[in-house]
Amino acid sequence: MTDNASGLPINQNNNDQNNEKGNGKNNEQTYRQYDFKFVIALLVILAYILKLTLSFPMSGSYGGVENQWYVSPALFPLILLTALFLCCISLLMSSIKQQGHQHFFSLAHWLGNKDNQQVRDRWLIIGLLIGYVYLLIPATDFYLATAVFVCSLTSIFYLQIDQARRTVIAANILLAATLVTIRSTLNEDPSISILDINDLENSILYCDLSTGFTLISLVIWQVICGSKIDKPRVMYNLIAVLIVPLILVMAFSFLLYVPMPVEYGSVISFLNWLIYEQLGI
């Protein structure tokens, strides 16, 4: 027998409907598992913020003036934290009711399917971001660090050059090893970690040279390989990699007067010399 509406056998039509229901149920359970992970992580963050908030003065006498609890700087953060905590508890209970806590302690479930390209790309982006924040920025000029980071991402996801992932990973690992070696070798203060921000001139100079060489190498590689794919796209990419970060650095430093994460480096020193000493702005 066939279903008049679809023209398919009734049994096949029923199987399709059952598969759709099963997939919908699996997707719903997957979403609840994501909710459970998110709310657990958020509760940990809220607990840390609450600890910092409770260190604020609640009441007392300051400068001869008696301050009450309702004018404490901790009051508004505590209100927000309470509201967020209640929302988290509600989401936590909802996710537990729908079996969202399952596979919470499964490492494979946290990392994802290693055969899935999207999962691998997600961890690649996380790795590049961690290296950018905790290694490149403290070690070298902010513009150079940002340009290398953006160049790495555009090579993979915008230009989509063949073997881009392997090339980007190799270049960033080599740069990271070089920066760590430079900072550990030229660091004369044992109390300063290789991840700490410091203004040792020789270390900054050699780190800038290494980062600049990596940036130039990646840009040349992009131009050579990307021109075979799409020349206009290569031009847009060069603007995004080299020009946009420079404009942002200049806008925040000299127009908005917002300090950069680090105030040292070859590029920012040149800009300070150009803007203040030569142009007299």
TrEMBL record:
Region annotation Disordered: where it falls in the sequence: 1-26
UniProt-listed InterPro entries: DUF1468
Residue stretches spanning the membrane: 34-54, 74-93, 121-137, 143-160, 167-183, 203-224, 236-258
Keywords, comma-separated and alphabetical: Membrane, Transmembrane, Transmembrane helix
Domain DUF1468: 40-180
Presence of keyword Cell membrane: no
Name recorded for this polypeptide: DUF1468 domain-containing protein
Species of origin: Paraglaciecola algarum
Upper classification of the organism: Bacteria, Pseudomonadati, Pseudomonadota, Gammaproteobacteria, Alteromonadales
